[in-house]
Amino acid sequence: MQIARQLQEITLDLSGGSCVTIGNFDGVHNGHRKLIGRMMAKAAKASLPGVVVTFCPHPLRVLVGPHTPPFITDYEKKLDLLEALGVDLTLMLQFTRELAALEPEEFVRSILVDGLNVKELVVGYDYSFGKGRKGHFELLVELGEKYGFSCERLDPVIIDGAVVSSTRIRDMIKAGDVWGVRPLMDRFYVVRGTVVHGKKRGGRLLGFPTANLEVRDELVPGPGVYAVWVEVDGNLYKGVTNIGYNPTFGNETLSVETYIMDFDRDIYGWELRLNFVHRLRDERKFSGLDDLMTQIRSDVELGRQILDSQEAGL
């Protein structure tokens, strides 16, 4: 897959046209996958390159400011997921206030028509674009007739009686419902982080050494204890992750600590990927170390049983 951050970087031959879909695609969830899959099917039928247009930074970061919540996927992970779907070209446009101020027709003409030579366009059921988000599907149909491309709009994907959306998935992750998001995403929710030095209580006091993760600007599941698949240097291990404030010890900052089962290596400075499988319990304060150690042993055993039940891993 070719990645371009401006039209001038594109080397893919678009002289015969392209098939395009456009959006933020935060999470690349099943709704997005249906949209991209339809675009790629049309591209294959017409023997055209399949192109995804997305934005960096996310428009909310520009229009609302830095206080927007973390997103489901960072840009590196989003590009990996798009490549796995067979996309030929991802145009990751820099989103600016100047881009947001473009009138809908100017956006279509300059980016889609002049830039990508679009012949077929596929958009989601709620897609809008251009200054004041005045662009809509009916306008795209009109502009397609003017500039020579067709436009198709897809209905939303419904799972468990509700639309699959980035907002729904984000809310579920914040609530700790990591098992519930898997059918919406076709994968476990992943958090990446770098192993850093923590309080050194896990092994010394509790008998369960933990990897303390410094997490990037990613959405972290709500406080609690989780069964996870841990990716270390390309290998999978069973694990249990605690997210929270360690109330037994009175911490004031959120921590992400993972006990990796059947593992004994020095991994300070390494990047780990936590695939969240199931929430085991709430975080809570214990009366002392003995009660906490008993609960940790129970958590590890339950986590192992859950992960053993789906040994295929990811």
Automatic annotation (TrEMBL):
PANTHER family: RIBOFLAVIN KINASE, RIBOFLAVIN KINASE/FMN ADENYLYLTRANSFERASE
Tagged with keyword RNA-binding: no
Pfam families hit by this protein: FAD_syn, Flavokinase
InterPro entries referenced in this protein's UniProt entry, alphabetically: FAD_synthase, Riboflavin_kinase, Riboflavin_kinase_bac, Riboflavin_kinase_bac/euk, Riboflavin_kinase_dom_sf, Rossmann-like_a/b/a_fold
Listed EC numbers: 2.7.1.26, 2.7.7.2
Name the UniProt record assigns to this protein: Riboflavin biosynthesis protein
Family from the record: Belongs to the ribF family.
Biological or metabolic pathway of the protein: Cofactor biosynthesis; FAD biosynthesis; FAD from FMN: step 1/1; Cofactor biosynthesis; FMN biosynthesis; FMN from riboflavin (ATP route): step 1/1
Catalytic reaction equation(s): riboflavin + ATP = FMN + ADP + H(+); FMN + ATP + H(+) = FAD + diphosphate
Organism name: Oleidesulfovibrio alaskensis (strain ATCC BAA-1058 / DSM 17464 / G20) (Desulfovibrio alaskensis)
